[in-house]
Design goal:
The complex is a heterodimer of chains A (233) and B (263).
Chain A (H helix, E strand, L loop, with lengths): L9 H12 L27 H4 L2 H4 L9 H9 L1 H7 L25 H6 L1 H18 L3 E5 L5 E5 L3 H12 L11 E6 L2 E10 L2 E9 L5 H20 L1
Antiparallel strand pairs in A: 1-2, 1-5, 3-4, 4-5
Helix pairs in contact in A: 4-5, 7-9
Chain B lengths: L1 E5 L8 H14 L4 E6 L4 H6 L9 H6 L9 E3 L5 E4 L18 H13 L4 E6 L5 H7 L4 E7 L2 H5 L1 H14 L4 E8 L6 H13 L14 H8 L11 H18 L11
Parallel strand pairs in B: 1-5, 1-6, 2-4, 2-5, 6-7
Antiparallel strand pairs in B: 3-4
The chains are: A alpha+beta (233), B alpha/beta (263).
Chain lengths: 233, 263
Amino acid sequence: MDPIYPWLDPVEVKRLAESLLKPLRQPNLKVADAGFDEGFVGYATGSSPQAKAPVVVSSLEIPELVMPSVAHDLNSDPFAVTDMSPPAPPVLESAPAPVVERVVAPPIEENKIVIRVPFQESVIRFRDWMRENFAATGIFILDREGEVLFEDGHQGRLHFLARSLAIAPRSPSVGSSNVHVKIGAGSMLEIIPVDSPHGRMVLGAVVPEALVPSSVGVVMDALSQIASLQSSS
Amino acid sequence: MISIAVSSQKGGVGKTTVSINLAHSFARAGVKTLLVDADPQGSVGLSLTRQSRLLAGFYDYLADPGIPLERLIVPTRLETFSLVASGQASDYETGGGGMGAHLSRVRSFLRSVAAKGFDLCLFDTAAGLFGVTGDVIASSDAIMIPQQAEPLGIRSVPKLLEGLSRLRVMNPQLTVLGVCLTMVQNDLAESMEASAALRQLLPPEMVFKTQIPRDGLFVRASARGLPIGVLEDGAGAQVVFDSLRMEIEAKFEPRSGNQSAQG
């Protein structure tokens, strides 16, 4: 009887091992720091002609859509401000754009912004709940491409770290896939991948101490519900 | 300078034995080597210096930015071989085991070591791939993983690989030198089976051809506070570590000239 192989998955082990021998691909960012700061303009998105256009750069012109009170923030962090932008007029609610569409949408794609309004409201409630229950001081949500769906504050420097850790290979046998990293005295970055009908989202939250597994489960459920509700609306 | 972390997910796999004797092999070959005891248990210090409980060391450096590297370096009779003990501060005193908490201090340490003219900094780390050990790995050029040739050790390989994948995200430059089988017992079927299974499981370039046998010489060397090659009958065992050293050198050769201290 083979004493080893019943205990592990040789194919998965070999895949992991081979990945470790290859040079690690890194995002081709032009900014010196891999944090998504002002120089970073987002990942390329899907295959539609609109998406292939220089969407991200033009998104910097979104101020027309933003209330004056938050226009200043838009200049310093386009991701955060787009998320904080007020609901657009509800004239295109029937548009079929997915809920977790890219945040940095060009002005012509008002329909996507409109459709995201309920998501935005739900996430803000989620953020408040996180603050209250886990003393989270910074919360952001990325989609599987690394684009910002929501951001509370300016956590751009943590986005790359969060996404990288969230997508690092892990065995399917590992129950919870959350990761936490100490980022300062008394502050941890908790990273929780959450599967949704739109693909995997990555929740990042700066918390005073790492969440216990039961709390991670509750957070995952809560965020997953928000995304699921949105997809069915 | 090149920095290598000798680390493993499991404890008791022979990290300290490999670290001491591999570092000694490099030093004998003329490589100016600093062996750093990054294990709070202080195994290197306890093995090689009777004063280890009095020496300031690596953890003191992490805890106190005012301590210069010069105060930590312990020379040996071999001019090219120096040590840094674990020290008196513990993991607790440095603020616990949060990943990333000591990254900047570890990198500062490595810059100081490079500035001192060392060619190789070899870390003997504590078991596990988190806390200070994680920060050491996330700051080093390469990692080698001793792995005991026994079934339980092999079963832990998936966890080890997952841990390394996460650390490579923190340190994309990290070279995984490979797994080195230790405590191999040729007269024990389970040990040989485990050894064969690991070689079948992993890509050939991830398992060192050299394997370390279980040998009473290691216990004797440790009892006398010496690397095994210094024992009067240790020449045979020294050949094993010289072979391991040459394998490591060969892995670095294709990219020699590109090495620099972390910064």
